[in-house]
Design brief:
alpha/beta, Dihydrofolate Reductase, subunit A, binds NADP nicotinamide-adenine-dinucleotide phosphate, 24% strand, single chain, 231 residues, globular
């Protein structure tokens, strides 16, 4: 099925929310691999997944990514649909938020406008050096205090949160039941091997999700799942 830009925008519109809505975006093979044979995810998605990946960035106030993914996937400058953002009343570009404990941030991303999220007990020298260029939000001892992070986002009006992973960061957010929505592209591929899944961590949970949509594209499926929350 070929989807036009308006249809995709409608399918992936953020729901109205008076708090940060955490959307995550992943691609996976049929057997659950989150990376292809090159150890990256980009080779799994087809052209429509690439379009959705870009659209989700254009719809977000903030893009949250683990430092591991930023390093592995070579994150650098990115472009968004500025016309779309202006039409939706969004800032010209989303804020890139990098999550790291050891503060090994790729140099290309240490640039004004970037925000780094880490723990309050992160290495003070590394924090001070980063703060010469970027904002550092340091909350939580041992572990990042995600409630405090989301409170900070909320104070700034950053309600459209997009987390691009990777699996370690996703696992933490899933464990804490902070993921409101998962956009998952299922690639028509069997991968075997020992690739990571899209979320992992020490503690298993059982969080039910409700299907938002499932659309055939490029021989695979574009799916959107919303966390089932009962008032
Ligand atoms: N299939 C997909 O859609 C998809 C999406 C994204 C990534 N991936 C793949 O996943 C692989 C990377 O996996 P990963 O699990 O290593 O990714 P990740 O979660 O992005 O990276 C882990 C690193 O990020 C930081 N981090 C993550 N969660 C943290 C937390 N709660 N607190 C503090 N720091 C945190 C730490 O960085 P420091 O080491 O700096 O402390 C940690 O070592 C790559 O191969 C990538 O291609 C696939």
């Amino acid at each position: 099925m070929t989807l036009d830009a308006g249809e995709l925008e409608r399918l992936y519109a953020y729901p109205p929310s008076d708090r940060p809505w955490v959307r995550t975006n992943f691609v996976s093979t049929l057997d659950g691999a989150a990376t292809g044979t090159d150890g990256k995810s980009g080779t799994l998605g087809g052209p429509t997944d690439t379009r959705v990946f870009a659209l989700l960035r254009s719809l977000a106030d903030v893009i949250v990514v683990g430092a591991g993914t930023a390093r592995d996937e070579g994150y650098a400058d990115f472009e968004v649909d500025t016309d779309l953002r202006a039409r939706l009343g969004l800032s010209p570009v989303p804020t890139m938020v990098l999550v790291s404990r050891r503060l090994g941030i790729p140099p290309a991303l240490v640039a004004p406008g970037t925000v780094v999220v880490t723990t309050a007990d992160a290495a003070p020298e590394a924090v001070a050096t980063l703060r010469e260029t970027v904002e550092v939000i340091a909350v939580g001892h041992g572990e990042i205090d995600w409630t405090a992070v989301l409170d900070t986002f909320s104070e700034r009006g950053w309600h459209r949160v997009l987390c691009e992973g990777g699996p370690s960061l996703h696992g933490e957010l899933v464990r804490l039941d902070l993921v409101d929505e998962l956009c998952l592209t299922i690639a028509p591929v069997l991968a075997c091997g020992d690739a990571p899944r899209i979320a992992h961590g020490h503690d298993a949970v059982h969080h039910t999700m409700t299907l938002g949509h499932a659309i055939e594209a490029d021989g695979g499926l574009l799916t959107r799942w919303v966390r089932t929350r009962h008032p």
